[in-house]
Amino acid sequence: MACNCNDPVNSWYDWAHQMPANILDLVAIAQLGGLPGTFLNSTSVNTPPVAWTASGIAYSGEPVVAALATDSGLAINNANRYNFSHEQRNQNPLLAPPLQKVIFARAGTEWENLITLAFGGVTYNDLQLSFRDNAGTRGDAQGTIPVISWTGSFTGNQQLGLVFKTEGHVSLMLRAITAAGDWSAFEIELFIV
């Protein structure tokens, strides 16, 4: 294949042979609980040594957009107006379950999208964020997948801050490992406008 581009995916065989997309093509800044994420090429984001468990992570509250230019009253006012006029997550308990993972976010490197995640009483020590579809690939030539990684002790409610370079409709996956060694994955579907 001369163009070095991905062919259409028609089966799981095709998907496994796709090159993983680079999360840095979309995300300019990522933080979790105030801790900046670290970019790395992961060999473990999609290959647990144990069976996957159900994710205990959930959204908590309404996401908000914050201006990164905190010294600019105009930028702060713009972010406040955006939050007032845009519902970023539908919190109706009767919403169909597949739609409950959907969040609308704001594109542009001057805005941080703050999404509160509820980890509950479980402590997570290792978290990796990447495109969901990367987990279906075998990785690049070295078997790695580009991720944004956090290690530490994450429990209770934690704010995930994301700054997006571009608009789009994407599904992200937050792979989480608990202190007990349980592996799970939480999907975040985003309409970035």
Give a description of the structure:
The chain is mainly beta and 193 residues long. Helices cover 9% and strands 40% of the residues. It contains 2 helices and 12 strands, in the order αβββββαβββββββ. The protein has helices at residues 12-16, 73-85, and strands at residues 27-32, 35-36, 38-42, 58-59, 64-67, 102-105, 111-118, 124-131, 145-154, 157-164, 168-178, 183-192. Strands 1, 2, 4, 5, 7 and 10 form a 6-stranded antiparallel beta sheet that branches. A hairpin with a 4-residue loop joins β11 and β12. The longest helix has 13 residues, at 73-85. The two termini are 33 Å apart. The model has no long low-confidence stretch (mean pLDDT 95).
Furnish the topology, listing elements before pairings.
Blueprint: H1 12-16, E1 27-32, E2 35-36, E3 38-42, E4 58-59, E5 64-67, H2 73-85, E6 102-105, E7 111-118, E8 124-131, E9 145-154, E10 157-164, E11 168-178, E12 183-192
Parallel strand pairs: 6-12
Antiparallel strand pairs: 1-2, 1-10, 3-9, 4-7, 5-7, 7-10, 8-9, 8-11, 11-12
